[in-house]
């Protein structure tokens, strides 16, 4: 199978969409498929192009058996609604050049990864011109998120954006997303049930596993041996609702046996660090190396997953898979009936979004109950091994891709046959 993957984010980015797109592409290459990727230089979650890379240059490379084309893009220093649109548009325009170069290669499947939907037209065009099947994988409903979080406010713009979204989604041969609720959302947007597919984010349950010793980060961060660590590790953006975790830390400042650790990068990190500077029960870290991820996740006695109410039913946080595989208890914010609630509630504690006091009470309850922490952590680990392991998820995804590729009729090959 010849697979062309088209998306904004890719390795060496360590978190979010780029991590999963790269792991998928590399795993499929190992299994003997010919995989090419058109993407941008790494910039996320720091929102600056990584050292050693150039924002305004085209580049071609080979990573783990995958041929990767990098297209220029503009990265705003302070992302907002308007600047994000320019940022996404810059990549959509520049990446049309390497996408056009794939026409002679004749892929069997063209897979676009959203965000960003602005790349969908080019993906559809390449698929139609080569006879390939067009696949859209939705990691995040960016239109809903943009308006739900107040990044864009115009009713006219909302109607236009949602109309364009619906039109694009219904033109793909397969549309996948990362949870059952998000697949249901695809159906409500007009995607035929036969075209919808659930492809959840996965976790390497061998690489992320419980340690039989304390994490080395305790000594690095000078955390008392008897202290319970509440860890947030992930992107520090608007939709994460980290202000609620900071509020919980303030409410629990009198509990010297509970320590809050914030680890990651993103637009809100500076504000988080500023608020935590005066709190002796808080530590703030930057993004850590991938090879230390298991050590980091095992720092937690309790994983914290805050969420804003206006984003709680729009996204399925990718960080959840590692939390569960580490066999540590989880406290999350989620509404009843959302995929996040249904996933965490049987094997963790869930409180309403935007309720920092309830969040703090749940943290205290777990901090004071080691037996419950151990039980919930073991149940989360079991769920990750049975449902979210890399092997099981990618096997299902590969099977659907192969089925899709068999229906491809590359245009050039057809003309030659005639």
3D architecture notes:
- By secondary structure, the protein is an alpha/beta fold.
- It folds into two domains: 2-202 and 389-412, 3-Layer(aba) Sandwich (Rossmann fold); 217-387, Glycogen Phosphorylase B (Rossmann fold).
- It has 17 helices and 14 strands.
- The protein has helices at residues 16-30, 81-94, 96-100, 120-130, 142-148, 155-169, 180-188, 217-220, 242-251, 269-276, 293-297, 320-325, 339-344, 356-367, 370-387, 390-406, 411-417; strands spanning 2-6, 34-39, 59-63, 66-70, 109-114, 133-138, 174-177, 196-198, 228-233, 258-263, 282-285, 302-305, 329-333, 349-351.
- The strands form two sheets. The protein has an eight-stranded mixed sheet with strand order 3-4-2-1-5-6-7-8, with helices on both faces. It has a six-stranded parallel sheet with strand order 11-10-9-12-13-14.
- Helix 9 crosses helix 14 (356-367).
- The two termini are 22 Å apart.
- The model is unreliable at 414-418 (pLDDT under 50).
Supply the key terms:
16% strand; 2 domains; 418 residues; disordered C terminus; globular; Rossmann fold; eight-stranded mixed sheet; six-stranded parallel sheet
Topology:
Layout: E1 2-6, H1 16-30, E2 34-39, E3 59-63, E4 66-70, H2 81-94, H3 96-100, E5 109-114, H4 120-130, E6 133-138, H5 142-148, H6 155-169, E7 174-177, H7 180-188, E8 196-198, H8 217-220, E9 228-233, H9 242-251, E10 258-263, H10 269-276, E11 282-285, H11 293-297, E12 302-305, H12 320-325, E13 329-333, H13 339-344, E14 349-351, H14 356-367, H15 370-387, H16 390-406, H17 411-417
Parallel strand pairs: 1-2, 1-5, 2-4, 5-6, 6-7, 7-8, 9-10, 9-12, 10-11, 12-13, 13-14
Antiparallel strand pairs: 3-4
């Amino acid at each position: 199978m010849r697979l062309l993957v088209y998306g904004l984010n890719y390795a060496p980015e360590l978190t979010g969409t780029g991590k999963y797109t790269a792991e998928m592409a590399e795993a499929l290459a190992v299994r003997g498929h010919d995989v090419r990727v058109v993407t941008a230089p790494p910039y996320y979650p720091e929102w600056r192009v990584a050292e050693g890379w150039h924002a305004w240059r085209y580049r071609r490379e080979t990573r783990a058996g995958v041929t990767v084309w990098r297209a220029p893009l503009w990265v705003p220093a302070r992302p907002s609604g308007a600047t994000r649109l320019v940022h996404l548009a810059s990549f959509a325009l520049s990446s049309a050049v390497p996408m056009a170069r794939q026409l002679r290669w004749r892929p069997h499947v063209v897979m676009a990864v959203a965000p960003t939907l602005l790349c969908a037209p080019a993906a559809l065009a390449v698929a139609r011109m080569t006879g390939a099947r067009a696949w859209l994988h939705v990691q995040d409903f960016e239109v809903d998120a943009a308006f739900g979080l107040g990044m864009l406010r115009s009713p006219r713009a909302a109607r236009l954006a949602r109309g364009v979204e619906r039109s694009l989604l219904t033109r793909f041969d397969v549309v996948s997303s990362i949870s059952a609720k998000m697949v249901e959302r695809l159906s409500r947007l007009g995607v035929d049930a036969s075209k919808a597919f659930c492809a959840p984010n996965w976790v390497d349950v061998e690489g992320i596993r419980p340690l039989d010793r304390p994490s080395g980060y305790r000594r690095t961060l000078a955390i008392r041996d008897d202290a319970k660590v509440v860890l947030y590790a992930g992107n520090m953006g608007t939709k994460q609702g980290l202000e609620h975790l900071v509020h919980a830390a303030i409410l629990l400042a009198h509990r010297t046996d509970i320590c809050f650790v914030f680890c990651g990068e993103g637009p809100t990190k500076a504000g988080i660090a500023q608020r935590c500077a005066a709190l002796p029960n808080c530590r703030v870290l930057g993004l850590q190396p991938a090879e230390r991820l298991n050590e980091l996740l095992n720092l937690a006695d309790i994983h914290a997953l805050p969420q804003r109410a206006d984003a709680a039913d729009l996204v399925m946080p990718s960080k959840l898979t590692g939390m569960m595989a580490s066999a540590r208890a989880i406290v999350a914010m989620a509404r009843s009936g959302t995929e996040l609630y249904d996933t965490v509630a049987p094997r963790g504690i869930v409180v309403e979004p935007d309720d920092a006091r309830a969040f703090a009470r749940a943290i205290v309850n777990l901090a004071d109950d080691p037996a419950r922490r151990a039980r919930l952590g073991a149940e989360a680990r079991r769920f990750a091994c049975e449902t979210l392991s890399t092997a099981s998820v990618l096997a299902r995804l590969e099977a659907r891709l192969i089925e899709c590729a068999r229906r491809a009729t590359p245009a050039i090959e057809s003309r030659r046959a005639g």
